[in-house]
Each structure stands twice: as C-alpha cells, then as structure tokens.
Amino acid sequence: MSLILFLSAVLMAFILLTVAVVLWLSEVLGSLLLATLVVWVLDIIIAVVIYFVSLHPSIKRISQRLDTIYEVSAMFEMAYRQVVLFVKKVMGGS
Predict the structure, then answer these.
(1) In terms of DSSP H, where are the helices of the chain?
(2) pTM of the predicted model, to two decimals?
(3) Which of 62, 76, 86, 88 has its CA 20 to 30 A from that of 10?
(4) Which CB contacts under 8 angstroms, 24+ apart, belong to 3-6?
C-alpha cells in the first residue's frame, strides 16, 4: 500500500513539475503552444532513453528465456511422441 502511495506521489510531482516547466517556458518563449511542444518532445526523448537504457535489455533477456523454454518444451514433446510410438509397438497397436 505504501508503495502505491509513493508511486502516486511521484506521478503527481512529475505532473506538477511538467506544468510548471510549461508555464515558465511559455513566459520565456511567449507561446503556450510552443512551450507545450518543447516539453512534450523532451518527455518523449526521456522516455526513449529510459526504454533503451533499462527496459530494452530486460525485455531482450526475457525473450531469450522464453525461446529457451520453447526449445525445451519442443524437445519434451518430441520425446513424448517417441515414447507413445514405442509403447504402441510394444502393446501391438497400430
């Protein structure tokens, strides 16, 4: 519960900081629209950097683990089918 409250406080602080930066930049640039676009582009750049620095390697590692799990399950399925065929031969089935 405390983690949820902390994360919501961080989100609110980020929103308030973004609004403050947009308002300050609109005073400097003289245009609210231009200030909003500048802050929006900066937020996109920050999101892309966070993705490539921290999330992308984790996603790649999870993908490799899933590939390994798929290969192992395929091997087990092949072994199971061979055991079934062997049992059918031994039991005299078709």
Answers:
(1) 2-29, 32-50, 56-91
(2) 0.56
(3) 62
(4) none
Torsion sign, CA atoms 82, 87, 89, 90 = positive
Domain count, the chain: 1
- Of 24, 48, 50, nearest to 36 by C-alpha is 24
Separation CA 75–CA 80 (nearest Å): 9
Instruction: Output the CA–CA distances (angstroms, integers) from residue 45 to 9, 21, 36, 38, in the order listed.
Output: 23, 16, 14, 11
Query: Tell me: the pLDDT tens digits for 7-58?
Result: 999 999 999 999 999 999 999 999 999 999 999 999 999 999 988 888 888 8
Burial class (CB in 10 A: 0-12, 13-18, 19+), 41: exposed
Q: How many CB atoms lie within 10 A of CB 59?
A: 11
